[in-house]
Amino acid sequence: MSQLFADVAVPAPFYPWKTLFTYRVPELLAGSLANGMLVRLNFGRRDTWGVVCKQHSTAPDAKIRVKELGTLLLAHPALSERRMRFLERIAEHYLHPLGLVIEAALPAPIRTGTPRTLAYEFPTSPVVVKVSPSDKVLNNEQSQAHKSIVESPQGSHLLWGVTGSGKTEVYLRVIEDVLARGQSALILVPEIALTPLLTERFESRFPDQVATFHSAQTPKKLREAWFDVWTGRKRIALGARSALFAPLENLGVIVVDEEHDGSYKQEEGFRYNARDAALMLAEIYECRCVLGSATPSAESLAAARAGRSTLYRLSDRAVRGAQLPELTLVDLKKSLPLQSKIPHVEIRDEHAPPTHPGDFFLSPELRDSLAATLAKKQQAILFINRRGVGSQKLCSGCGHTLDCPNCAVKLTPHLDRMVCHYCGYSSFEPSKCPQCKREESFISVGIGTEGIEEVMGFHFPEARVLRLDRDTVQTKDDLADILGKFGRGEADVLVGTQMVAKGHDFPNVTLVGVLLADLGLSVPDFRASERGLQLLMQVAGRAGRAMQPGKVLVQSFQPEHPVFQALSQSSGLTAYKDFLSDELVKRHLLNYPPFASLALIRFDGLEEKLVEQAAQNAARALFRLQAPGLQVLGPTDSPLSKLRGRYRKQVLIKSPDERVFRKSLEWLLQGWSKGQLEKRFKTRMFIDVDPVQML
Ligand code: ADP
Ligand code: ZN
Hints:
binds zinc ion; Rossmann fold; alpha/beta; GIY-YIG endonuclease; binds adenosine-5'-diphosphate; 19 helices; globular
């Protein structure tokens, strides 16, 4: 018998993206090796793992010393043939080396397991799937969507339903059907830790059939979940974006809940978007994909419009009698203190009634509504998308601000210290201004969650206030604790960042206050308005979910902004649709997704000059290509121009022609790695295809 070789993907960055390495197959493995198998091997100077992609008997060039494969980590292929095709497809789409894509797809406890931890058994008897049937009768809109989805085994569907309209109920019914046919189901949710109730709902409907996946899992739990799915013991995988890689086969449906959510995008390492990748997965597995949202993304609505997916609307809350909340815009300009144009400046007047420097952010309208809500023993949610006491500290003598030494951002004041929200740097407030040397001159400007908590304590000392933000939630238990307390009515008011916006269902919440709705609308990002509206609608959707009617107060400096105008009319679906139609027209004109492919090429390094040169070099190279229809913008400083001590520059490229776009990027990558530019410029280059975060 001739010598057998295996071409293996290894976890190392190589271009072109699908570089494989040839290993000799030891005789011992010759009969049992299959594609998709996970093996130990030596690569370069390290012992690592690889996945077999191809086997053949063509000996490589005699000059190359071919190493031998090590032992098998699992006796069956870790990745099926279809799954490999999927991983190749996304590697190609995101221009990321295949070995590193596989690394993201296989959980660390599997890749780095030992024979002891990787022991597994396939179920000996057929797995019985139990379903606890629902006691609910689907309403008209729900049944129509359900029927149509069940009747089409392939293709994509967009379920557009207002918050609380019963989308989840539709997913559950579709999954019931899929399981009954012996197939499996994948459910993606944006942040599973934030929605423990959702997990419970799936588990109680499909007992012992749900494997959950998320990043905060212990290695043991993760390994268990992976094996449960891989061996076919469980046929439902539920989780945040990494659940995309749960080793399900025979897929019947992929559900992407809250499909518009930006957290589907992985922002480090392998920068993929789980929503978009889910659509590719469904194509490869020839199954249906259901995207659901109360506020669908512009991309998904455009796809439905172009006939690439089927759109269903759920226009009312599913619980009979539950109404969408009434929404009021409050103009903060009107309550701007006359004495000062800077909000939150302390003005002391000994004869005035007691006031708090943060009063400004609690408009009289909101204060009255809070009082009324508390009097009725109902609950309120106050939302402000910023942590801390204020937004920054400013010297009242000279205007000097306190910046993070590592990042190009201001430090955020907290009660006891000043913190950089990007790198975690913290310091105490200086007793003297470093610039004008005045003593005790710093004042807090703006407001954050901690500040609101304080103002609440001042005006409503009897109210029990809980705060939900990344400072109060350090672990998953903290989160369950806060949500549990609020859910049980052990607190009256929940103050928080966008963590309060997620799919929580608190029936006794009848008031939602958005304190500073303008935050986030001015970031330099073509999706800023879309995202702003989605977030606000999501928050507003927390009010009045049961029988008592809900009320939403939105405070802003620019109530005339199209986002707020759309918001105030968005109890129906029409205003949202019109708003996005306008957005899509703009994007069409400016050549932005979904009408063009877009990539953000980011450069970062410790020496600003070299980073600039690297970015210039790349931009010039792309210009010189003169690819038809390719637009090259930049280089420019990134909006966040310094992060953790590294200077950041970026180049944007766009093209309506996907092939031109891809070829140009590949060409750039090739030149970059060939010229060893990373070393020469001491600069890293990342390509972010379909970027979500433009900072
Ligand atoms: P969404 O996923 O759109 O937010 P859910 O599926 O969570 O909506 O439904 C919101 C609430 O309405 C839940 O309490 C759910 O149990 C209830 N519900 C859903 N469908 C129905 C129905 N057909 N009849 C009665 N109640 C329903
Ligand atoms: Zn910092």
